[in-house]
Amino acid sequence: MKKIISSIMALVMVFSLVACSSTTKKETKKETKKETMEVEKKVENSAEKKYTSVAIDDKHAIATNDNKTFEIYELSSKYHPKLTMGNKYEFKIDPAKIQGNKLKFDKELEMLGVKVGFPLSIQGYQKLTEKVKNVKVVDTRDAKSFGEKTIEGAINLNGAEALKAVASKKLANFKNDSLKDFTSKDIVVIFGKSPEENAAVAEILFNVSHVMVTFNGGDIKEVLK
């Protein structure tokens, strides 16, 4: 009798374990399906985002999709095997590869409301210098402030004088021997005491020295801290 009872109890335990295992598998499948759906949803949403960008070399572009923050992306497209530095492109993200497809070139495309001197945060500046070599820095403050303390390797172009030249629409009136040190292949980040003066210097660099890629870094004090 004891043997029969023991056998029955053993069978009950086996059935219980099988039932638990089956339930666990079903729950795991549900969780996996839920996670997959969430990932697919994220991918789908990300793929719909349209980014505007400016090429900083033949394969990297600095881009924004919210007109507030910039990220640097490596882009590739069968239509644009190599990017043209300074050209502006629109693209959509492929989340799996983090690469752009169907790049749309638009010479007049604006980012953050400007065509040159794109606003760049300190974090954006740090990312840029990490990804790209030989970024040139301009300090637009007066010669005295520049001489007291500046960013290592910075070039001084007076922002107040640049602002006057731009306002009068006489860019040739802005005289500075350092303008000859810039070329169309340069990537320039401009710092100073005011974004307006930085923007004026960016316009002069674009029109006089033909610098295609300029960024407005804002107040230099944020960098010199």
Automatic annotation (TrEMBL):
InterPro entries: Rhodanese-like_dom, Rhodanese-like_dom_sf
Keywords per UniProt: Signal
Domain Rhodanese: 133-209
Superkingdom of source: Bacteria
Pfam families linked: Rhodanese
Signal peptide range in chain numbering: 1-21
PROSITE patterns, per the entry: PROKAR_LIPOPROTEIN
The protein, known as: Rhodanese domain-containing protein
Origin species: Helcococcus ovis
Classification of source organism: Bacteria, Bacillati, Bacillota, Tissierellia, Tissierellales
